[in-house]
Write a structure and sequence with these properties.
heterodimer, A: alpha+beta, Uridine Diphospho-n-acetylenolpyruvylglucosamine Reductase, domain 2, Uridine Diphospho-n-acetylenolpyruvylglucosamine Reductase, domain 3, Vanillyl-alcohol Oxidase, Chain A, domain 3, five-stranded antiparallel β-sheet, B: 371 residues, alpha+beta, Alpha-Beta Plaits, four-stranded antiparallel β-sheet, 29% helix
Chain lengths: 483, 371
């Protein structure tokens, strides 16, 4: 993965840039020691690392504004960072960049149950947003797997999803307003504590813009009352295609589960060996969860079981208690860890129309054979968001490259069948150079035009999302700083 | 002028000598001045996969045609777009492109999200005649910037939609409405907030002050709806309101009327929409001094009919929200239709307009661009 050559002029001006930042921020909020900046050299895409020029950890919107204004004046690229859990390299620095971390901004600013919203600083972690309201019976719906660590800032940047978005939507569907600092330091308010901001839907384009349009410091989030209860049913099938058809039939039947999760045989085998969840050994396993009162859950699970029976399941196990629910979810929640026990893995994130599921799984199996790399599939089947986990050995020369080529082939297949490169992880650097596969030049140009408006000099997270050749000439455009 | 294909549209845009007034059925009062350019010829459902909950249609496809196709599979447009014709006094055929261009959402917006939340992908022609696509036909997609949202609600100012791809949902088995009688505005808003705080998944909440009736809709499986109506009755008994429930059929008729704001039909005057925090709605309505008003979205949306030319924004002062002038009498022509934006946001809006439509030929006056 190529990154742009760092700007030697900026690196030469490091002392002045750091001094300017130190002059306006508390001592601990500016890090430039080469050992300490190491902590920020990568995110969860650990195959790529590069310590930044410096790290800033502002504690307020005003401090963020000051940092950005100085970096703007100095022509320094800024890499915004939430908790650094991006799987796509969204927070990967370059040697000539200043990392702007929002981790010190984690306050809950307002909770308003009557209007079902809360306002938080965006360094707050996803799980602790729900944590602040759950005693009063509320929750924040988007629940990415990294929710214990990931920050709302990153959720907004990547438009994060989670296991329950079939019913509750992803971040963009649960975001009411933001306070955002533009690259030149200007603070703008978009949306707020009401439904549908007026004018153009700027909130919609900011969400998922991977930290390239501005730094979101505060967010107004929609919160929801917790359901009375939830319970899953587990079903096993001896054919992927049959499991896929079952998913489709459940959706068509008018039941809207909160989650439909899918695991294939390699993944089931790995999780069983690791977590001993008691899963059946079969080709495909579905976990379908529904919500409501006990009687409502019974009724919906009954309908789902009737549909499943028509597809001759090898196993059909309905949870009747919290313990049984936990047991059913145990394997699914351990899946990534289990695959990690076997080897290094790369986690993909393409989405496909759910009707294409059987064909895509078959093709992935064939590619796995020809590349000689194992792959396990675990994903959100209700919305077609796949997570193929390709196993490789990072210590074996050439294996990473082979794995990346295999991954790119899978993503091309996703696009070919009418899907997309990434459903919830974002493009970052990982899928940057595949954007041509999904978008024609005019499609990309329209997106680049949006960044031109928000960040004319292309200083915010500039080497991400778009292929480097199309952003060449835009990055750092018009910047001229005296040495 | 009427185009029959995307290629025709490209040609029409490229050769346009002056402003174009884009329109589908021209039922929603969005079309601006300029040469009328109808997109109603871009018609037809190109793909419908009930098992994937997705539908793709040409932008000029009548909403009615889409609803007929969905009904046949027991599905629906969950965001419940209103029919503006009776309110606006228009007569055309509403199109799906118009629904998304104006981000039209009805009562269920409160529970499931707005039109923009169901729009998965778009194709459009920009102001220079370039064909652009964004998003796709899958429910989860974070590949690049979400121009789908940007185009939704852009009222034809950024591009002419040619194709939309949307998420549809199953039609529930049944529905019912709990009706609370004789609450004043603040008590009704409080009762709706209490219902929305419950786990019983109210899918619409409205209050009609003229009738002094408050409506809470439940949808789902028969047994579930019955159970939830019962629980809501227990929960709201302390309000002192008389409680009765409406069965599916009268409930459906009622919500169609609420969706289309029947209460404000048939009289002269300006029609406004105010988006606000629900709990602030009664105070805002009191300040407005409207001839008639109606609360939807549990109070998050206030519909008002005002004396012609009355400047509602001046009466409301500063609050958390915004006001749109939907139907304007002669006397109100000087008032901006959309809420004027703060300078920073206005600069972004103007910048985007300049990029997507550098010649400024699309529906230029449809967004209030404050300077």
């Amino acid at each position: 993965m190529d990154m742009p050559t760092p700007d030697a002029g900026i690196i030469a001006r490091k002392a002045r840039i750091v001094a300017r930042l130190r002059a306006v921020l508390p001592q601990a909020a500016v890090i430039d020691d080469v050992h300490e900046t190491r902590a920020y050299e990568c995110d969860a895409l650990t195959a790529y690392k590069c310590p930044p020029l410096a790290v800033t950890l502002p504690a307020s919107t005003e401090e963020v504004s000051t940092v950005l204004r100085i970096c703007h004046e100095e022509g320094v690229p800024v890499v915004p960072r939430g908790s650094g859990t991006s799987l796509a390299g969204g927070a990967l620095p370059t040697a000539d960049s200043v990392v702007l971390g929002v981790a010190r901004m984690a306050e809950v600013l307002e909770v308003d149950y009557d209007n079902r919203l809360m306002r938080v600083q965006t360094g707050r972690t996803n799980l602790s947003v729900t944590g602040a309201v759950e005693e009063d019976g509320f929750f924040y719906a988007p629940d990415p797997s990294s929710q214990l660590a990931c920050a709302i800032a990153g959720n907004i940047a990547m438009n994060s999803g989670g296991a329950h978005c079939l019913k509750y939507g992803v971040t963009t569907n649960n975001l009411l307003g933001v306070t955002m600092v533009m690259m030149d330091g200007e603070v703008v308010e978009i949306g707020g504590g009401f439904m549908d901001a007026g004018g153009l839907d700027l909130l919609g384009v900011i969400c998922g813009s991977e930290g390239q349009l501005g730094v979101v410091t505060e967010a107004t989030l929609r919160i929801l009352p917790k359901p009375e209860g939830a319970r899953p049913v587990l079903m096993g099938f001896d054919d992927n295609a049959v499991a896929g058809a079952c998913v489709s039939d459940i959706i068509k039947a008018g039941v809207l589960p909160v989650a439909i999760e899918f695991m294939d045989r390699p993944c089931i085998e790995a999780t069983e060996a690791f977590a001993h969840a008691g899963y059946p050994m079969c080709e495909a396993l579905l976990i379908v969860e529904v919500e409501g009162s006990d009687a409502e859950i019974d009724h919906q699970l009954q309908l789902i079981k009737e549909i499943a029976q028509r597809h001759n399941p090898v196993e059909l196990r309905e949870s009747t208690s919290a313990e049984e629910s936990a047991a059913i979810w145990l394997g699914r929640k351990s899946a990534f860890g289990a695959m990690g026990q076997i080897n290094d893995y790369m986690c993909l994130d393409g989405t496909i129309p759910v009707t294409e599921l059987p064909m895509v799984l078959r093709r992935i199996g064939e590619m796995s054979d020809s590349y000689g790399l194992k792959v396990g599939n675990v994903f959100h089947a209700g919305d077609g968001n796949m997570h193929p986990l390709i196993l490789f050995d990072a210590n074996k020369p050439g294996d990473l490259e082979k794995c990346e080529a295999f991954g790119a082939d899978i993503l091309r297949l996703c696009v070919e069948v009418g899907g997309c490169l990434t459903g919830e992880h974002g493009v970052g650097i990982e899928k940057r150079d595949l954007m041509h596969v999904q978008y024609a030049p005019a499609d990309l140009e329209a997106q680049l035009a949006v960044k031109d408006v928000f960040d004319p000099a292309w200083l915010l997270n500039p080497a991400k999302v778009f292929p480097l050749d199309v952003t060449e000439g835009r990055r750092g455009r018009g910047v001229s700083v005296a040495a | 002028m009427r185009v029959a294909s995307e290629a025709d549209l490209v040609e029409a845009v490229r050769s346009a000598a002056g402003p174009l007034s884009l329109r589908g059925g021209n039922t929603r009062g969005m079309a601006g001045t300029g040469t009328a350019l109808s997109l109603a010829g871009l018609r037809g459902i190109t793909l419908y996969e009930p098992g994937a909950l997705t539908l793709v249609a040409q932008a000029g496809t009548p909403v009615a045609e889409i609803e007929t196709a969905l009904t046949a599979e027991g599905q629906r447009l969950a965001f419940e777009p209103m029919d503006h014709r009776a309110l606006m006094g228009t007569t055309g055929e509403p199109t799906i492109g118009g629904v998304f261009a104006a981000n039209v959402s009805g009562p269920r917006r409160l529970a499931v999200g707005a039109a923009r939340d169901f729009l998965l992908g778009v194709r459009y022609v920009d102001g220079q005649g370039n064909i652009v696509k964004n998003g796709g036909r899958v429910m989860k997609n974070v590949t690049g910037y979400d121009l789908v949202k940007l185009l939704a609600g852009s009222r034809g100012t950024l591009g002419a939609l040619t194709e939309v791809s949307l998420k549809v949902l199953p039609e529930p088995e049944t529905s019912a409405t709990l009706v609370l009688s004789d609450l004043d505005d603040p008590a009704a808003i409080a009762a709706m907030a209490q219902a929305m705080r419950s786990p019983f998944e109210v899918t619409a909440a409205a209050h009609d002050p003229a009738q002094r009736r408050t409506y809470l809709r439940l949808e789902g499986f028969e047994a579930s709806v019955t159970y939830r109506i019962g629980r809501l009755k227990d929960l709201l008994s302390a309000t002192g309101a008389a409680l009765e429930s409406l069965a599916a059929k009268p409930s459906t008729t009622l919500w169609r009327d609420l969706r289309d704001v029947t209460a404000l039909h048939g009289a002269q005057g300006d029609v406004w929409r105010v988006h606000c925090r629900p709990t602030e709605a009664p105070a805002l309505a009191a300040k407005a001094g409207a001839e008639a008003h109606l609360y939807d979205w549990a109070g998050g949306l206030i519909w008002l009919r005002m004396a012609p030319g009355a400047d509602l924004r001046a009466r409301l002062g500063r609050y958390n929200g915004h006001a749109t002038l939907l139907r304007a009498d002669e006397a109100a022509q000087a008032l901006p239709r959309q809420e004027p934006e703060a300078p920073g946001v206005a600069r972004l809006t103007a910048g985007l307009r300049a990029k997507f439509d550098p010649r400024g030929i699309f529906n230029a006056e449809a967004l209030a661009l404050s300077t």
